[in-house]
User: Fold this.
Amino acid sequence: MTQRGKTKNMITLVVISLCAGIIYQVPYLKAVFYDALQVALNVSHTELGSLNTIYGVAAMILYIPGGILVDKIRMKYLFPISMIGCGLLVFWFATLPSLRILQLIYLLLAVFSILTFWSARVKVVRFLSTKENYPTNQGVSGSLYALAGLLCSFAAMAFISSGDGSSVADLQRALIFYAVVYTGFGILSFFTIPKFDDEIDTTAKFHIREFVEALKQPGVWVVAMSTFAIYAIQISVPYTTPYLTNIYFAPAVLISAISIIRTYGINVISAPISGFIAKKIGSTGKLMIVFSVCVIAMSTVFLLTPVKESLTLVVIIFSLICAFFATGMNGVAIVQLDEVGVPKRVFGGASGIVSVIGYIPDVFIYTMYGMWLDKYAGATGYNRIFIAMIFWALLSIVFSALVLILGRKRKLQTSED
Assistant:
């Protein structure tokens, strides 16, 4: 931990957490402003999904190189490079260029938000903390992350809803707002993040042995697949936004507000509550099974609820409940590595492997769901998404059960030793 005062450290923690809370807003803008984005860009569901697919593929490739880069370049420089780089790209995005240019922008957004930012954000929280207050600082950072997303999304919605009725002009205003915020926080981060002692390891080398040993751990694969299923659930839930506007004809402004609460507001409480429950019951795997069963129940409700205007509120409520279970699971998924007994010496490599495999749904889900919505009219396409959510939840139950089995086996081996 740096020798700076607690106040300066807290200011830095706040700034970097707010940066993390806003940097992923534009890449995942359709989670909140799906309809406005589709209309302004004049693209199909499939084409809109392709943007996140490109971002997801690039992110999957860049996670591990980003971890190497953060040991070579100071975080004081990586943060402003990331934020200002994204800001310039969003200014470009605001011109609403062609689909091909948008795909290039999303590719570059992955470079600045994953390669130069993802590992830097994780590392700076650790450097700001002692061993004792690291969990607390991580929790504070997570809450600030969600809070930043909540406030920025509502601000963007104000730009969109206060316009002249032109979806194009309204979205442009929101994008320019994001670009200014990105750039401003990039400048602020340069002046608030210090040069930490020992953050640059000139002798650091990429050791493939750590990853090879991690790959040999059955628990790593089980947790990776559990994370895969959980993340697939989480990125499926936002499709309740166009479902409510296109099928139930709910007001777009109302649903955008609900989507912001679902995406960011729920996350403020879901992860801490999930962590508390997992600690109380003594198993993250058990929590995953219970929450996955709840997701199946919520998805079944979506499938069976008649399309009637009088039932719109019911669907909204269940979408928020479903989001609680999805974000709650995703917030503590990585903790399963400890439950299955992955050795600390390969924890870094194991975390990288889980990240790469766990976020694979970014690569195909958006395009797959977009194709369903373009091909199947009315509620049929959305029903396929809800059925897929049931499948992902069943997959989560299977691998969470394996987490429990491996965890019990580890405890037996420990007691015998």
User: Anything to note?
Assistant: The radius of gyration is 21 Å. The chain is about 80% helix and 0% strand. The chain has a mean pLDDT of 87. The first helix runs from residue 6 to 23.
